[in-house]
């Protein structure tokens, strides 16, 4: 994909609060961008007939098709060597130029390297000598024929400067195919649709230029923003990418009025993967006046990162003010003049009413050229750590009035000072306050287990556990129970001990012989996993595999395959009990720091032999936040119905009623819907909850309509940004929010008094969002697709016959922190929709969703555009994982402690 992917929305403005990392109580809010832009290509959706078409042929051949269209009814077909385009006018005050197209390679490709190119030629000179520049080049050798894909591009500062010499240009779309020796080869057609070019004008042609470096070397493709601050607010004025020499430019910058200023920003948001050797962001040069000359140059800076040394990620430390505990890091390879560093420690769950951000303590500034980069936590100047809480620390870098933050932050559990490494580092507010466990009670043995064992490791256990139930016996259901508890779920101070709940299974198996029960349990107090079968015999038959881990897709896939083969039944159900998060990670293993993502989950189902006509009848995700679109789309090819929650999970498995229900009926939809009711009644009436059952056969059409909406928004948030942008933001804010940060609150931080409002949750109710968007007062014009796409998706979700949500139970009540909470606007299906804030793990979740483990999707592409416009707000960064790299830990579930009195050992009662 083009190196300019997704940058055609460079002037998109989405209104959001801007509170810079250096706390400023009177920081203004973002305003609307003012540079006027327009779509300049005629017939972008290729709807006119061949005789009337403005698409001029510069080299054959061109065709039109009503069978291949990304939108509308027609698309433009080009064979190898074809060149089509249009003439455009170039104004003298050109400020920006960017565009977008949809393309589809026809099936039957000959294997050559197809190229889709967007080129600019001098007017009337569409030939080699007239080429001004290539705006975009797509090498499509790896593109799967038959799929509609997107290509976006943006003109560099050099291209804009070159176009200043011309009053017009020819925009030409080219298809080429190169054989093995570089000669032209025959190829099938490429279909193009939604060909758009945005041209922006400005009143003045002052250009800001500079060079961005990393560790003293030019940094290419750096994402740069120019912000403008006035008395009415701060807005993103323009955006750019640095070239191969690290140079960037902002042309056409308007004059400054009294009291206004510009600031240049670097954001670590590349097109593909983030670079952890670079700072998370850098608030660069600030300009409070502009000279009259054509250019301002020398706006250079360095974005190389610091290296965090100690304590290690997710360390747990016994602590008091006499403890000698230091935060240590390494300096940057190429520091800037007068550079200073501060170590900062903050509480992600508790707010500071004075700043509107999490409570934070920062050290005095250190000079990396002479000072030891180590800060003692012996005296935190009024910041009092609470035993059992998980904190975060990072390094803030500054040079004069420029500043930035380390790419990584690290979690740090601080407990009462006794011995180190005993206090759990990850707990929600409710778990910290409701269960006051001692350090000795929290201590569990830890045995390191490798990830990714071969099938034989589990499959060889067959000879022992198959004797639990004779294959000759008739069975209505096989219930496979997968307990991934090598984490907080094995800790009596943090969870309800699912292993103890399994003690009811032998009795239930004997009571309901037509329901076969098989379990796999991975816990922190045992090596590897234990697989058990439960039959008419008095005791379960179990065997241990000391090498397997429940965080491995191989382990899950082998368990499903083994259970289906050795315990056949008319219906099969899979119950997964595990930590999880809002971007589809689950089954976190504390001893290895690993977890499964959605791609791993998909691989597990495939390796188990599922897919096509072979599907599980029911999947129950007893996993936090798994009632979301991405989990549905991942699970749909492998199961018929599903039960999950878009919010924090219950962790009380109702085995008694669950097994009795399976014994009573084999109708899977009835089972799924009734299971929602069973789980709901396990919680006290005053507790807020959101649970749902889903028909996975309806997920494909949901995905089609969601993709259409994401494509429309990606095309039109800029082309009619003053119209679509505010509607998009308002619909997001109006939709029900779910507790993705697991702090027991909705978009709030706890304080000693009333909770502090903070946009720190990143899951929204999908139906609520599209309902508000479809009802937004969008004016007609510019051939908008967003209103129709939103209405079509809303119609699907509102119709009980087409919505994947079979039933949803939502209830307002109290949160797990005893605060009132309202989930009455929940419709049971969430979508990952971050605000761009550096709060509530949103940075880490977005990192995982966009660059790590979540499947690619049109929605993810839209989010990349959206997040690329968000200026830093809050102290959060990318959480560093134990094995290295960025990762947020999946949480064990926010309702763990509601019935803790049932499960705590006697000494803790």
TrEMBL record:
Gene3D superfamilies, per the entry:
3.40.50.11970
Q: Please provide an example of a Pfam family that matches this protein in its UniProt record.
A: Peptidase_C11
Q: State the source organism's domain of life.
A: Bacteria
PANTHER family assigned: ALPHA-CLOSTRIPAIN
**Protein name, UniProt field:** Uncharacterized protein
